[in-house]
UniProtKB/TrEMBL annotation:
Pfam families: Sigma70_r2 (PF04542), Sigma70_r4_2 (PF08281). Transmembrane segments: none annotated. Keywords: DNA-binding, Sigma factor, Transcription, Transcription regulation. NCBIfam families: sigma70-ECF. Residues 25-90 form the RNA polymerase sigma-70 region domain. Belongs to the sigma-70 factor family. ECF subfamily. GO terms for biological process: DNA-templated transcription initiation; response to stress. InterPro entries: RNA_pol_sigma-70-like, RNA_pol_sigma-70_dom, RNA_pol_sigma70_ECF_CS, RNA_pol_sigma70_r2, RNA_pol_sigma70_r4_t2, RNA_pol_sigma_r2, RNA_pol_sigma_r3/r4-like, WH-like_DNA-bd_sf. Residues 127-172 form the RNA polymerase sigma factor 70 region 4 type domain. This is RNA polymerase sigma factor. GO terms for molecular function: DNA binding; sigma factor activity. It comes from Reticulibacter mediterranei. The keyword Transcription regulation applies.
């Protein structure tokens, strides 16, 4: 049985022009990366797709990838930086805050649960998304990487190029703030 190549091996092959290796990386990381970006940009599917494409273009254009560096944190660092660059524009930040967040939330899930379960899940999901959007970016990114992408604390530190202690602190503060924002909502449900 043939062993699957690691991300690092695939990226090394991509650097030599191996299109099959590139296709494997894209297949492996497109969905999770899209989900990560979707959460970071507040549920804008088109923007998320555009940022995934831009991230993958950056990967393809790389000529300095160091095989010793883990691929996944490196990939997510590129994506995170692209999101930060996008939101640096004051006009973009203002439009995003005033945008059609409710319209985006109406088209979220197409799953098999009953209509009531879907409505409740969408309502709870929209509350969590709204609370996440209110967090400072540094807390939001750590929370999304940890709880939605399943990154280890060390992978988050590598992705954001910050000390492990900073990751733990941001995660703790971010979760605490998220809980306090959602607490009034939870009490209303009980």
């Amino acid at each position: 049985m043939m062993q699957e190549r690691s991300d690092e091996e695939l990226m090394t092959a991509v650097m030599t022009g191996d299109q099959v290796a590139l296709a494997s990386l894209v297949t492996r990381h497109h969905g999770p990366l899209l989900g990560y970006l979707y959460r970071l940009v507040g549920g804008d599917r088109q923007l998320s797709e555009d940022l995934v494409q831009e991230t993958l273009l950056h990967v393809l254009r790389q000529r300095t990838y160091q095989a010793a560096r883990p691929f996944k944190p490196w990939l997510y660092a590129i994506a995170t930086n692209l999101v930060r660059d996008y939101f640096k524009s004051a006009a973009v930040r203002q439009c995003w805050r005033e945008g059609d967040a409710e319209d985006v939330l109406l088209h979220l899930y197409d799953s098999e649960p009953s209509p009531e379960e879907r409505a409740l899940a969408a309502e709870q999901g929209s509350e969590v998304r709204a609370a996440l959007a209110q967090l400072r970016e540094d807390y939001r990114i750590v929370i999304v990487l940890r709880f939605y992408q399943g990154f280890s604390l060390q992978e988050i530190a590598e992705t954001l190029q910050i000390p492990l202690g900073t990751v733990k602190s941001r995660l703790s503060v971010g979760v605490h703030r998220l809980r306090s924002m959602l607490a009034p909502v939870q009490k209303g449900v009980d």
